[in-house]
Amino acid sequence: MFSGTFAEAGKASSEHPIIVHVQGTSRSCVEKALDFAYTTQPPTFERTDSDTDIALEMLALANSWFMTELHHVLQNCIIRLKMVHTFNVDAVLVAAENARATKLVDYCKRFIEKNMEQVERARQQGQENVAESET
Question: pTM for this one?
Answer without folding.
Answer: 0.83
